[in-house]
């Protein structure tokens, strides 16, 4: 595991470096105090995970996500910021970040967030997940009548649970389906909708619902 901390406060970098070393037996940790230096590191070294502050020297708002992803296609990005997550979390995850961790969170959540993103999962706090749910349209019958993007009733049902933040295993348990079956449904849903995450899926539902009549 190769991780890069792009953070301008030394004490924060020190704390996150300890988290990484507790989580991963063999981890290389690079550090950058500003965004431009961090981007060069991504371009020059085999970075697997970037832990990125968004309010730092050289920062370019959500453009930073795309620039990092273009430099390294499969890299994972965890935003680690002191800015209010209710205002910034969804914005950055929708821009392509793999998770948003508030510096105001309980320190016990730091390891959970890093581990999730490093292992290919998305990370949002329970509060942000709830925020996402409250932004969703409630009248799914209108979407069904329009045969929204060709989803079957079962696919629509699983879409709703994905958007609520449930993991594949949780959906399988709730619907009494095999884990492999839910995984197949999820893949088909994402293919039909042209998305790669539940966050993107929720945006499509929101857009379609706003035009339903």
Describe what this molecule looks like in 3D.
With 213 residues, this protein is of the alpha/beta class. The chain folds into two domains: 2-125, Response regulator (Rossmann fold, 3-Layer(aba) Sandwich); 136-211, 3-Layer(aba) Sandwich (Rossmann fold), CATH 3.40.50.2300. It is 55% helix and 11% strand. The chain contains eleven helices and five strands, in the order βαβαβαβαβααααααα. The chain has helices spanning 10-23, 35-44, 63-71, 85-94, 108-118, 126-134, 140-145, 153-163, 168-175, 179-193, 198-211; strands at 2-6, 28-32, 49-52, 76-81, 99-102. A five-stranded parallel sheet has the order 2-1-3-4-5, with helices on both faces. The termini are far apart. Mean pLDDT is 84; it is low at 137-148 and 207-213.
The strand line-up of the biggest sheet is 2-1-3-4-5
Please, what is the oligomeric state?
Answer: single chain
In terms of DSSP E residues, the strand content is: 5-15%
> What order do the helices and strands follow?
EHEHEHEHEHHHHHHH
Quick summary of this structure?
This protein has about 210 residues and is α/β, with parallel strands linked by helices.
């Amino acid at each position: 595991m190769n991780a890069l901390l792009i953070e301008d406060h030394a004490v924060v970098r020190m704390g996150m470096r300890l988290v990484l070393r507790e989580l991963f037996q063999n981890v290389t940790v690079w550090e950058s105090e500003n965004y431009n230096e961090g981007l060069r590191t991504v371009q020059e070294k085999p970075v697997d995970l970037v832990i990125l502050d968004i309010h730092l020297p050289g920062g370019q708002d959500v453009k930073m996500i795309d620039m990092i992803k273009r430099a390294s296609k499969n890299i994972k990005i965890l935003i680690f910021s002191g800015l209010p997550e209710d205002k910034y979390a969804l914005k950055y995850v929708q821009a392509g970040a793999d998770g948003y961790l508030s510096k105001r969170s309980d320190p016990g959540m730091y390891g959970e967030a890093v581990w999730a993103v490093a292992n290919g999962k998305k990370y949002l706090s329970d509060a942000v997940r709830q925020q996402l749910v409250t932004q969703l349209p409630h009248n799914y019958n209108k979407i069904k009548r329009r045969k929204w993007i060709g989803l079957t009733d079962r696919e629509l049902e699983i879409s709703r649970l994905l958007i609520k933040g449930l993991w594949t295993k949780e959906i399988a348990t709730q619907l009494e389906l095999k884990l492999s079956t839910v995984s197949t449904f999820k893949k088909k849903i994402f293919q039909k909708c042209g998305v790669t995450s539940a966050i993107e899926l929720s945006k499509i539902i929101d857009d379609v619902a706003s035009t339903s009549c």
